[in-house]
Design brief:
- It comes from Caldanaerovirga acetigignens.
- One of its GO terms (cellular component) is cytosol.
- The chain is of the alpha/beta class and about 450 residues long.
- The chain is built from 16 helices and 13 strands.
- About 45% of the residues lie in helices and about 15% in strands.
- The strands form 2 sheets. A 7-stranded mixed beta sheet has the order 3-4-5-6-2-1-7. Strands 9-10-8-11-12-13 form a 6-stranded mixed beta sheet, with helices on both faces.
- A hairpin with a 6-residue loop joins strand 1 and strand 2.
- The longest helix is centred in the middle third of the chain and has 25 residues.
- Bound molecules: ligand FFO, guanosine-5'-triphosphate and magnesium ion.
- The ligand Nc1nc2c(c(=O)[nH]1)N(C=O)[C@@H](CNc1ccc(C(=O)N[C@@H](CCC(=O)O)C(=O)O)cc1)CN2 binds next to loops.
Amino acid sequence: MDYERDTIAAISTPLGEGGIGIIRISGDDSFNIADRIFVPRKIKPCDMEPRKMYLGDIIDPETKETIDEVLIVKYKAPYTYTREDMVEINSHGGFTVQNRILEIVLSCGARMARPGEFTKRAFLNGRIDLSQAEAVIDVIRAKTERSLKIAQEQLRGGLSEKIREMRHNLIRILAHIEASIDFPEDDIPCFDSETIAGEIKKLKEEMEKILNKSKAGKIVREGLSTVILGRPNVGKSSLLNSLLKEKRAIVTDIPGTTRDVIEEYINIKGIPIKIIDTAGIREATDEVEKIGVRKALESLEKAELVILMFDASDELKKEDIDIAELVKEKYVILVINKIDLPEKIDLEKLEKIFPGKNIIKISALKEEGIEELKEAIYQAVTKNIGSLEEGILITRARHSQAIRKAVEALERGEKALEESIPMEVVAMEVREALEFLGEITGDNVNEDVIKAIFENFCIGK
Ligand SMILES: Nc1nc2c(c(=O)[nH]1)N(C=O)[C@@H](CNc1ccc(C(=O)N[C@@H](CCC(=O)O)C(=O)O)cc1)CN2
Ligand SMILES: Nc1nc2c(ncn2[C@@H]2O[C@H](COP(=O)(O)OP(=O)(O)OP(=O)(O)O)[C@@H](O)[C@H]2O)c(=O)[nH]1
Ligand SMILES: [Mg+2]
C-alpha cells in the first residue's frame, strides 16, 4: 500500500489557551520549511542536532514579522513517530499564535494533515501495526484508568503479540496439513487428521475465550450505556445530578421538565458508565415533550442497562406499569426514589411485576442510597461481562468480528475433517482463518477499513 509522500503539518495540541502548543511537521520538506521560518538565537536548523531543543523565533518569511518565541526540535528519519523527517515547534499555547504559525508552515509548502495522518504514516511505514495505531486514539480517549491501562497494553503491542502467536500456530497447522496432502502415504503419526483436528480445536478454543471477553473490552473502552427511565417527576434528573455531583440537568417539580437526552460519564471502580437521563415517559400532549419521549425510547433501545425509577411517595400508576412492560428485554435495576418522604408506593405490587428482583431505595435529593446503587451497577457490569483481569482483552467490534470469522473458518475446517472431505478444503479454511486474524494487525486489510479507522482520529495525531 502506498501513500502520499508530501509534507504534512498540524497543530497537535488542543486549540485554545494553554501553556504550550505544539505544531508538528512530517515529510521530506520538514527541515527546509524549518530553515525558512525559524530564526535561531544560536544554531541554524540545518546545523541543529536531532532531538535537541533550540530556542529562536518563528518569522513570517514574506514580511519578516516575528510571530512567536519558540523552541524547536528536529527529528531525523527513520527514528521518528512517522519514520519520516519531522519538526516540532513548541510555541505559546494560544489560538491565534498557533494558527498563525500553522498558516506560515502551510504557506511554505506543507499540506494540512488529515485526522490521524501522522499515526497512519507510522503504520504505513511499518513502525506500528494497525492494532497499535488504534490503541493510540484509545489512549487519548481513555475514560478511566482501567481503559487507559488496556489501551497502553495494546499500544505496547500486547494484542499484536497474541495475534502473531495464533497466526504462527495456524501456519504450523497448515504445514502439517500440506505435508499430509503432499505425502499421504507417509504414515507419520503427527500428521494424521486426528492430530490436526486436535490442534485446530485448541486454537479455536483459545479464540473463543478471547471472544467471551470482548464485551468486557468494549465496555472498558466505550463505557456501559445506562439509561434512567421512569414516568415524569420521579427524580431521574436529580439522580443524574447526584451521581455526577454537579447540577448538570434541570430539576423542577413540573412533570415533563427534561426533554433532551443528557449523557454524562461516571467512573465506577475504573469502569466508565455512560449515564443517560431522559424525558419522563407518558402520553405527552406537548409537541416538544412528545419528541423527548420518543428520544427516551430510542435511548432505551440502545442501552445495555436500565435504571428503572419509581416514586416512593406516590402510588404506582398505570404509566409506571406501562414502562415496566417496555424494559422486559433489558437488564434492569429497580430504584425507588424519594424515600425521605412518607412511603405510599405499593411495593408488593412492584415485586409481583419483577419477581425476585432486588429493589434499591434511594433519595436523590438527600443523596442517600447512591453508593448502594453504584454497587448494584458495578455488580450488573461484572455479572454481564465477567472478569476483566486476566489474559488479553479486545476492545473493538472490528477485532471481535475478525476473530469470530476466524473461528467460523476453523469450524468449517473441523467439519471437513470429520466428513473426510479432501485435505485441500481444510487447508483452505485454515488459510482463511489466518487472513481474518491478519485484519487485526493490518497484515491483511483493505484500504477502506484503514481509511475509516484514521478518520476517527483527531487532527495532529
Ligand atoms: N512532543 C511530542 N510528545 C509526544 C509525542 C510526539 O510525537 N511528540 N508522541 C506521539 O504521539 C507520544 C510519544 N510517542 C512516540 C512514539 C515513538 C516515537 C519515535 O520517534 N519512535 C522512533 C524512535 C524510537 C526511539 O528513539 O527509541 C521509532 O520507534 O523508531 C516518538 C514518540 C507522546 N508525546
Ligand atoms: N423529597 C424528594 N424530592 C425529590 C427527590 N428526588 C427528586 N425530587 C424532587 O422531585 C421533583 C422532580 O425531580 P426531577 O429530577 O426533575 O424529576 P425527573 O424524573 O427528571 O422529571 P422529568 O424530567 O419531568 O421526567 C423535583 O422537585 C425534585 O426536587 C428525593 O429524593 N426526595
Ligand atoms: Mg428530568
